[in-house]
Every structure is written in structure tokens, then in C-alpha cells.
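Task 17 of the worksheet. Students: predict the tertiary structure of the chain below and write it out as C-alpha cells. Keep your answer in the requested format; marks are given for formatting as well as content.
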Amino acid sequence: MTDKNENAMDKLKGKAKEATGKVTGDRRKEAEGKSDQAKAKADDAVGGAADRAKGVKDSLTDDDGR
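Model answer:
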């Protein structure tokens, strides 16, 4: 599974955990869900920045990697 897919799954799990916490009144579980979602969002941002940096590097180097 790719990082984007893993992050999407983590976001979904976080939403489910948050919803479960809200329904049951478990504030800790709700907070954990929000935290899981925030971590997945941050991981997406880091992955996107890495992809952009690789694209810039690739555009500046020739086919031999120089």
C-alpha cells in the first residue's frame, strides 16, 4: 500500500475513533481520533513536499543523475 493510501486509511480510522468517542461520551477516544487524523494530514503534507522536492531535483539533473 502506498503512503497516500496508508494516510487515507489512518484518516478514516481517526474519524471512526472520533465518532465512537462522541457517541459513547469517551473524550479520550474522541481526542485520539482527532490526533490520528492530524498525524495523517501532517504525513500527507510531508509526503507531498518530498514529492515536489524530488520533482525539482529531477528537473535540474540530466538523465545520468548529474
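Marker's comment: Residues 3-46 form one domain. The helical segments are 3-24, 27-60.
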